Amino acid sequence: MNTLENLRLKIKELSENYTDEEIGGWITGDGPVPCNILFVGEAPGKTEVEQGKPFVGMAGETFEEYLNSIDLTRTKVRVTNTCFFRPIKIKEGKTGRTTVSNRTPKSPEIKLFKEILDEEIELVNPKIIITLGNIPLKRLTNFKSIGDCHGQVYFNEELKRYVFPMYHPSALTYNRNDTFKKMYHDDWIKLKKVLETL
Ligand code: URA
User: Fold this and answer.
1) CA–CA dist 109, 82 (Å, integer)
2) What is the spatial distance between Cα 114 and Cα 57, in angstroms, rounded to a whole number?
3) Tens digit of pLDDT for each residue in 126-147?
4) pLDDT given at position 96
5) What single-letter DSSP state applies at residue 153?
6) What's the rounded Cα separation, in Å, for the pair 190 and 174?
7) Is Disulfide bond set as a keyword in this record (predicted)?
8) What's the predicted TM-score (pTM) here?
9) Ligand 1 geometric centre to CA of 94 (Å)
10) DSSP structure string for 10-29
């Protein structure tokens, strides 16, 4: 039988043996198992790796704020990622100074963790999966773009579960205009209503 500890060991092994690209540490999912509600993000950043938990950095603050606004807390939901290590790019400046920044996980990196995420979904056995951004959306559904499907619930035949696509919380940082903000806010209200029907 699979366990969270098995998943942790597999993530550790895959990450520590990955040599194709630069990475900056790895984490597992967080939250109760089993759990009716599963959020799936993209990949951890620096703060997540430091604290060993998904969504605890800047995007995590936005995420938790909205989660609390619909009367949910981190203790009631499971949160995980599509890619379990932190994809990074390292740039050397002309002065010799190096900067490390996050990058979007590449297709092979998403594939690397396909089995792990599938196994986590089986273990968590959620009624609904909320995808945060395009990376988990494309990994778990046939939708091409978040813009086409966000804020609605779908029954996914392959997963045999409901899926509710949302924008990634960090999209709020890039789209500071009121229209986007209102739409993002409304999506959380829609999620709240959907959760009440499950
Ligand atoms: N963004 C993600 O997609 N996942 C995290 O864990 C943190 C930020």
Assistant:
1) 9
2) 24
3) 999 999 999 999 999 999 999 9
4) 85
5) -
6) 22
7) no
8) 0.97
9) 31
10) HHHHHHHT--SS-EEEE---
Query: Encoding tokens for residue 136?
Result: 């988990």
**Ligand 1 centre from 85 Cα, in Å?**
10
Collapsed DSSP state (helix, strand, coil) of residue 55: coil
Sign, CA dihedral 153-155-158-160, equals positive
Instruction: Tell me if the bond preceding 87 is cis, omega within 30° of 0.
Output: no
| Region 4-197: CATH code | 3.40.470.10
Pocket of ligand 1 (CB under 6 A): 41-45, 48, 54-55, 57, 59-60, 81
Q: Which of 130, 126, 121, 129 is nearest to 187 (CA)?
A: 130
CB atoms within 10 A of CB 2: 11
Structure-token pair, residue 90: 């390292």
Residue from 29, 32, 31 nearest 82 by CA? 29
